[in-house]
């Protein structure tokens, strides 16, 4: 008697050896994506990070169908973007960086039109609920051109969700948005994620990515240089910083073999960087005391995603 095997569902997005070469006037071509491969697990908030021009937007535009890939494959919710382009497109909602609207439609009309493009029957459209979710209920019948930048960006999120896709891609969604609007946006994104929507996020705010993302991939010069759970990625930081306040003014920052770098501020505060694999905070404090300095206060700073990001992108440059 055979037993049926229950295999895990395929990841939300599967990218395999994805390559993109843009044609240039001299015929040489510009390599934007260089055999990039990674999976986006279902139900996660996944960060896609990299410096400007790294290839993030090219990758997103390939998934959305706006850019044609040169090589490799991509599957969205199990659908190959070439073999099943319609199903692949219906499985994803994209919030682009650029704010583009027809200024003569109201937010409600914008969502209704978008739902029509996706073939959502009128009885199943939820435009009013989406506007309520992104705090634009009171602007439902205002012309889109009268909305602020932050409101337009939230309307873009609602527009991407009209066909209830299982995957939402946000390309720099909080660029130029004030802190309050950013918090509202993230509250809605987390709510969608709690309901089972897989989120892919590109952002320049590394602190944002560290707080929100379960897993992060980093692209630099079109190549994948990291793909790990966020906590594991932060753990890759090789250096730590301890801030030591001493009992007297110093003319210059004292160096010691235990220190990788020292900065002196205000005459008495030393910011000491040390390598985790060569020393610990106790070693650093002992070194300071061995110089005849009394320690008045100590503040340690754990490494964060920014440290790792800078180290990885510098090494890959």
Widest sheet: strand ordering: 6-7-8-3-9-10
Just give the CATH class of the largest domain. Answer: Alpha Beta
The run of helices and strands is EEEHEEHEHHHEHEHEEHEEEHEH
At CATH level 2, the architecture of the largest domain is: 3-Layer(aba) Sandwich
Pfam family, one: ABC_tran
Keywords: ATP-binding, Nucleotide-binding, Transport
InterPro entries: AAA+_ATPase, ABC_transporter-like_ATP-bd, ABC_transporter-like_CS, ABC_transporter_ATP-binding, P-loop_NTPase
GO molecular function: ATP binding; ATP hydrolysis activity
Give a brief outline of the structure.
With 317 residues, this protein is α/β, with parallel strands linked by helices. 30% of the residues lie in helices and 28% in strands. Strand 9 and strand 10 form a beta hairpin.
């Amino acid at each position: 008697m055979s037993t049926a095997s229950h295999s895990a569902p395929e990841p939300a997005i599967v990218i395999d050896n994805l390559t993109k070469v843009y044609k240039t006037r001299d015929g040489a071509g510009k390599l934007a994506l260089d055999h990039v491969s990674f999976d986006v697990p279902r139900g996660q908030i996944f960060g896609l990070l990299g410096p400007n021009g790294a290839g993030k937007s090219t990758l997103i535009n390939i998934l959305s169908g706006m850019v044609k890939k040169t090589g490799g494959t991509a599957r969205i919710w199990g659908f190959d973007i070439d073999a099943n382009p319609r199903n692949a497109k219906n499985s994803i909602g994209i919030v682009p960086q650029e704010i583009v609207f027809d200024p003569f439609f109201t937010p409600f009309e914008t969502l209704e039109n978008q739902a029509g493009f996706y073939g959502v029957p009128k009885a199943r459209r939820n435009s009013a609920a989406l506007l309520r979710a992104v705090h634009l209920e009171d602007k439902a019948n205002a012309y889109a051109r009268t909305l602020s930048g932050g409101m337009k960006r939230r309307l873009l999120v609602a527009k991407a969700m009209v066909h209830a896709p299982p995957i939402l891609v946000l390309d720099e969604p909080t660029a130029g948005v004030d802190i309050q609007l950013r918090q509202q946006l993230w509250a809605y994104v987390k709510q969608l994620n709690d309901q089972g929507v897989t989120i892919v996020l590109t952002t320049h705010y590394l602190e944002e990515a560290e707080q929100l993302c379960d897993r992060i991939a980093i692209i630099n010069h079109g190549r994948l240089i990291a793909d790990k759970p966020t906590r594991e990625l932060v753990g890759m930081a090789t250096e730590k910083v301890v801030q030591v306040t001493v009992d007297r003014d110093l003319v210059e920052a004292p160096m010691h073999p235990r220190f990788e770098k020292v900065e002196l501020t205000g005459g008495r505060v030393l910011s000491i960087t040390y390598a985790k694999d060569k020393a610990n905070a106790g070693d650093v404090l002992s070194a300071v005391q061995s110089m005849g300095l009394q320690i008045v206060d100590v503040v340690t700073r754990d490494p964060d995603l920014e440290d790792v990001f800078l180290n990885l992108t510098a090494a890959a440059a």
